[in-house]
Amino acid sequence: MGGAVSAGEDNDDLIDNLKEAQYIRTDKVEQAFRAIDRGDYYLDDYRDNAYKDLAWKHGNIHLSAPCIYSEVMEALKLQPALSFLNLGSGTGYLSTMVGLIIGPFGVNHGVEVHKDVVEYAREKLDDFIKNSDSFDKFEFCEPVFVVGNCLEISTDSHQYDRIYCGAGVQKDHENYMKVLLKIGGILVMPIEDQLTQITRTGQCSWESKNILAVSFAPLVQQSRADGEKPDSVQLPPVTVRSLQDLSRIYIRRTLRNLAGDDSQDKGQVQRIPQKRKRRRCRRRRINTYVFVGNQLIPQTVESEEEEQTEEEHKEVEEEEEERDTGDIEILKQVNVLRDQIMALPLPESLKVYLLYFREK
Predict the structure, then answer these.
(1) Nearest partner of 66 among 132, 20, 112, judged by Cα
(2) Most C-beta atoms within 10 A of its C-beta, which of 24, 137, 248, 313?
(3) 95: closest CA among 34, 149, 159, 36?
(4) H or E element: which one contains 182?
(5) Strand, helix or coil at 227?
(6) How does strand 83-87 pair with strand 61-63?
(7) With 80 as the cut, is the pLDDT of residue 68 above it?
(8) Is-catalytic flag, 64?
(9) Which among 64, 70, 83, 95 is annotated as catalytic?
(10) Backbone conformation region of residue 213, classed left if phi is above 0, alpha if psi is from -120 to 50, else beta
(11) pLDDT digits over 261-307, tens only?
(12) Nearest-angstrom CA–CA distance, 122 and 129
């Protein structure tokens, strides 16, 4: 699946294309997509294909097309402090974006059948926390991944506000998925070649809406000998955060808010502007008539006024692009939250803890 939008040169360019095609429609989803570089979840040898609207698979590692993830993120209608379960969590790309929206008081769990993919997802998550420029700009709910078959989840598991299944669900497994959902919750999954949004409206009532025609590989069903008891999947427990962790969250939130207030007072804009796409200008042609002997012959000439206007447009747009590039470079060089933490009169070990042990 994929190919619905043009390929981008980088992550921001890809997001611009998804917005233009109306796959990304809300600010919070756009911010999450821009914060997580899709290319970081590719193997280095395949990164050149990261910004195409195409699915990618290498061994057990798989990423759906960007247009699919966009529709999923919008259909989930995410809010802070919700609980989220990702069935077939794969590389953790989607779970990490979800974590930026549901925040530190949400729940973010993923189940993946392949152990090597879970290890890959944990590596990518650790790299995001330690090295991404975006981490300090958000409050984050860190995903927790477990190895197992999502069709073998323990019957006494807790329910979730939002669920996504990243593999094709057969009709006879539909009710199994619905039971995992809280009343008022939303389940998004591919079923019968349709990406479907299911809302649980009551104890035994649901509303369904088809979102997009899709083609997904089916869920892997665990093979076992006759009479063999299946391995039950235990989902991660929902735990209460420690006082130490809560203190870190609120200290970082307070400093981030202070930095935002200072920026507003100084008239600074704390966002990276979108790239401007150069407009196409057509030269206007004017029909004139000239006498040749006794005949009146039409001739077409280009308007000098239009050519001049086109050149002015190009100059203005080039200047705007240069200014945007300058803004991006300045914003990437400064991590205001980190600077504020390092300036606090605290022991170095506590500063490192407040920074989540990040080195930059």
Answers:
(1) 20
(2) 24
(3) 36
(4) strand 181-191
(5) coil
(6) unpaired
(7) yes
(8) yes
(9) 64
(10) beta
(11) 766 666 554 444 455 454 444 444 444 544 444 454 455 544 545 55
(12) 11
Closest to 356 (Cα-Cα) out of 128, 38, 109: 128
**CA distance to 65, 92, 248, per residue, from 123 (Å):** 21, 10, 23
Residue pointed to by tokens 């914060």: 35
Structure tokens at 59: 């061994």
CA distance linking residue 263 with residue 24, whole number of Å: 28
Q: What is the 3-state secondary structure (H, E, C) of 188-201?
A: EEEECCEEEEEEEE
Q: What does the block give as tokens for 12?
A: 């921001």
Q: How many C-alpha atoms does 326 have within 13 Å on its Cβ side?
A: 6
Closest CA to 29 of 126, 124, 94: 94
**In the block, which residue shows the tokens 């962790």?**
245
d(CA 126, CA 123) in angstroms, rounded, equals 5
Helix/strand/coil (H/E/C) assignment for every residue in 128-162:
HHHHCCCHHHCCCCCCEEEECCHHHECCCCCCEEE
164 forms beta bridges with: 86, 188
Share of the chain above pLDDT 70, in %: 76
